[in-house]
Each structure stands twice: as structure tokens, then as C-alpha cells.
Amino acid sequence: MAVDYLVIFVYLAGMLAMGWWGMRRARSKSEFLVAGRRLGPAMYSGTMAAIVLGGASTIGGVGLGYQYGLSGAWMVFTIGLGLLALSVFFSARIARLKVYTVSEMLDLRYGGRAGVISGVVMWAYTLMLAVTSTIAYATIFDVLFDMNRTLAIVLGGSIVVAYSTLGGMWSITLTDMVQFVVKTIGVLLLLLPIAVVKAGGFSEMKAQLPTEYFDPLGIGGETIFTYVLIYTFGMLIGQDIWQRVFTARSDTTAKWGGTVAGTYCLAYALAGAVIGTAAKVLYPKLASPDDAFATIVKEELPVGVRGLVLAAALAAVMSTSSGALIACATVANNDIWSRLRGIGKAPAENAEHADGHDEVKGNRVFILIMGLAVICTAIAIDNVVEALTVAYNLLVGGLLVPILGGLVWKRGTVHGALASVVVGGLAVVGLMATYGILANEPVYYGLLASLAAYLVVSFATPATDAAVLAAWRERLAGRAPEPESELASEPAATPR
């Protein structure tokens, strides 16, 4: 294992080095939170694919393939579909808004103070998303070093917190590009063909396994529908995803770069399911489907390659963890803390407060605080699936309707949006307590309650002021002036 350890060590050291490099570049709020909105198509595509394909997509995707066969690809497949829908239909408009958070978009659209309430819901989602990614370190480091769970979470989480705090989005972007390359080589180009060959090829896999393992719908129609509802729609509205859209240098980059990333996710989904199916042939009696990835890597791959593939799994976890962490900190600082302190009534337009508050330093502090909170929460929680379900149920049940409603329906009002967030969020929480966290009913009924509240209250209250809608249309068209912080930031070479 010495060679494998060396590969992992070099990878982790490289992540920290890129964090240090990013610190030298992130000198304004725009540079720190959205990489100066200067990413070109290649870098944008790679980083977007990296953030959406995390530990759940890699370890969990292989586990679903082990349990259900090829239809186990549906979870990650719906993530790819969501990214494609976001890129084709909404990303260009989102990029032109020139904001930092989803809550700022809601304030611009509705002309009211929807930010704090929606910010709390989005903060809870991003926090739990970061927690689920951080928990996954325990699985990887256990395979590598037979390490205690708590120590593994602290080690992996500390590295992510360190490079994210140092350089913000620039560090995360650079590390995500490396992580994207490592995942592509490790999972698609190495683990996938080796697993299939070790299992005897597709003909042997078909001979050894029941026919339902090769049924595209074998996982069940209701499960697929739930995946679409949670993950496809979740991709449309998550702060972690939108914050990457904000990094694109143009709306064209956001649209086409995201389309490439979404297509890559579809291929990654199928690869994970095939690897899991091969693992079922090789190890038919594993205690848990989630052990399939670690088992096939540990037992079937040669020295060196094993280290690279484990680095790919680590890359998948780190990319999602760091993206969720900076999103969580951005929401906590810009949408909750600053508003509660009464600072900056228009956060999207004012980068520096009148009291000379250093926003880069402030956001850095919030990443550190949220990072510590994520590590402590991850140590306390055991069930990754439940934590991830809570995150997406809150996101979709509470925020899907007011966000998409604001983008496509001009009659929606601020009161309707607030009612939608509150009713949908409370309904989801109450239904999870009643039916259970993993039940499908909470997100089904919570989303319906959110939609009903939005429509009824919007029709019952005065329409949004014409001046607010006019300003909103100007922002959507990209004709609004650049935020002060971005005009003041130093020009730099455009990453391509």
C-alpha cells in the first residue's frame, strides 16, 4: 500500500497548495465568492461536473448498481437531467442577474424582504449537504488507513476547510478541476473497464445475475419519480449549483458549459451502475451495498491504480463538500447575518459596507465557522441517506415553487413567495416526522402545499410593483450596471 499512500498524500498536498495559490488571487468579494465571474467553458464545465458528482454519486451510485443493476443509475442520471435543464432553460438568465445568492434573486424579483426566511431554508440545505459529503471521508480513510471514523472526518474535513477558507471560490475552482480529471481517469477510464473484465465481461454478468439487473426500470417507477422530484428539481434551485453558475464569464458559457457537464453526469451515472453490477458478480454477499465501491477497489485493482481510484473517490467527496461549504457560508453571511445586523439592504449591489467592513475577511471567517460546524455535525450523525434526504426535502418543498415561479410567472408576489416558503417548509418537516424521513410523502405533499400557498396568496395580494418588475427585467436582460465590487476588482487573465 506504500505506493497508494504516496498517491493519496501527493493529491492532498496538492489540494492545500492550490488553496494557498487561490488566497493570493481572491482579493475582492467577487473574486472570493464567484471567482470574479471569469470562468471560461472548459473550466466551468469541469468544476460544475465536479460539484454535482460527489460521494453519493460515486460510492452511492456504485452501491445502487450493486443492489439494483443498471437501473441503479437513475439517481445520478436525474442529477444530470437537472443540470441539463438548468443549463438549457435557466442558467443564462441566472448568470445575467449578477447576484451572489438565491435569496438575493428572490429579493430582486419580488421587491420584498424574502431573503432571511428563504436564506434560513437554503442554509439548512447547504449545511446538511456539506455534512453528508464530510461523513463520506470515514469510508474512504477506513479503506486506506483503517482509521477511526471521527479522526477520518476531522482529517478530511480540515483539508477542505483549509483550502476553502484560504482562497474561496478560486481555490475551490482550481481543486475541482484537478478533482474532475482524477475522477474521470480513476472511475471512467480505469475502474469501469477493470471491473467489467474482472467480472468476466457483460455476457458473464448477464449469466450470473437475475434478468431484472438489466432492466432499465428495475428500480421501480415510484423511486424514479421521487429521484426526479428531489434531484432533478433540486439541481434547478440549490445555492451550491447557482453559485457555480455565477462564476461563468458569460451567459453563453453558463448554458453550453453546463450542458457539457450535464451530459458527462449521464455517462458517470451509467458507469457507476455498471461497476456496481460487476461488484455483485464478484462479491454477491456484501453486508451493505455501499461497501461495493471500497471492496472492488481494494480487492481487484493493482497497486498504484488502487491509490488513484481511491483519490478519485476522495476527489468526488471533496468537490461536493467544498462547494456546499462555501455556499453555506455565503448564505449565512450575506442572507442571514448581514440582514439581521441591518447591514446592506441591497447585498447584491454593495460589496463594501459603509463602516469599511472587509468582506473577503468576513466571508473567510464564515467559511471557517461553518466548516467547524459541518465537521462537528458530521461526527454526531451516522446516517448519510437520512441527512441527504432532509436536505433535499427542505430545498424542494420550501424553495422550488417561489424560485421557479419568480422566473416564469410575473403575477407571483412577495407575500405569495413567503407563504410558499413557510408552508412548504413546515409541511415537509411535519410530514417527515409523521411518515418518516425516508418516506416519499413529505416531498410530494409538501411541494403541493407550497404551490397552493403560492398561488392563493399571490392572487389574494396586490401584484408586484411595476417598477420592481421593470428593474427585474433589466437584470434578466443583462442591462443592469455591474456591482461596485466587480467594477473595482483588478482585471485578470480569463481562465479557459
Automatic annotation (TrEMBL):
The keyword ATP-binding does not apply. The keyword Glycosyltransferase does not apply. It is a multi-pass membrane protein. The chain crosses the membrane at residues 6-23, 44-66, 72-95, 116-140, 152-173, 180-197, 217-238, 259-283, 303-332, 365-385, 391-409, 416-438, 444-472. It holds the Pfam family SSF. InterPro entries: Na/Glc_symporter_sf, Na/solute_symporter, Na/solute_symporter_CS, Sodium:Solute_Symporter. It is found in: Membrane. Keywords: Cell membrane, Membrane, Transmembrane, Transmembrane helix, Transport. It comes from the Bacteria. Belongs to the sodium:solute symporter (SSF) (TC 2.A.21) family. This is Sodium:solute symporter. It comes from Streptomyces purpurascens.
